[in-house]
What we know:
By secondary structure, chain A is mainly β. Chain A has no helices and eleven strands.
Amino acid sequence: NAGVTQTPKFQVLKTGQSMTLQCAQDMNHNSMYWYRQDPGMGLRLIYYSASEGTTDKGEVPNGYNVSRLNKREFSLRLESAAPSQTSVYFCASSVGILEQFFGPGTRLTVL
Amino acid sequence: ILNVEQSPQSLHVQEGDSTNFTCSFPSSNFYALHWYRWETAKSPKALFVMTLNGDEKKKGRISATLNTKEGYSYLYIKGSQPEDSATYLCAFRNNAGNMLTFGGGTRLMVKP
């Protein structure tokens, strides 16, 4: 099992560019999450999907959109990147409300 | 926004010392409290999920306790080793939904 995988590992964007971060899990988990991690801020939830076909906003959803493509895949899209979105992004999955399993992270820099 | 606080923010100990740190969370609408261990350049890994007041969990030299009535959990490490160096995160789930709210973490550094 690969667990939770994320692509890309690193990305540099210019302000205004768009991109999609990909996440996939092979553990047959129902729930998937996108977090951002900033220095001194801990992990903050951007969006989550409790099950295939549903998505909900987390603590910091502004500037992002998500798609739960199927049970395995949950993507995060930045339509018009801003420097404030420079961060490390983590995808996670879980069986409902149990422990979450995290991917390796995507380090995004917006210039 | 739920308030989950961890203290201290960072901690330096010598190899062999025992240590503990605190996670404070809202005492109302409690559902679960998670602890995660996060090593530098890796991703967070779950240590414990605790749901009942008075719960005590143990994994090797690491243990955790839970007090839901007063809204705190302690994580203890007995006889710290350099490989225990990591950031320890707690996360609170209330009974209203599927979200975890994370604290800011306690960064532990163990000197050999």
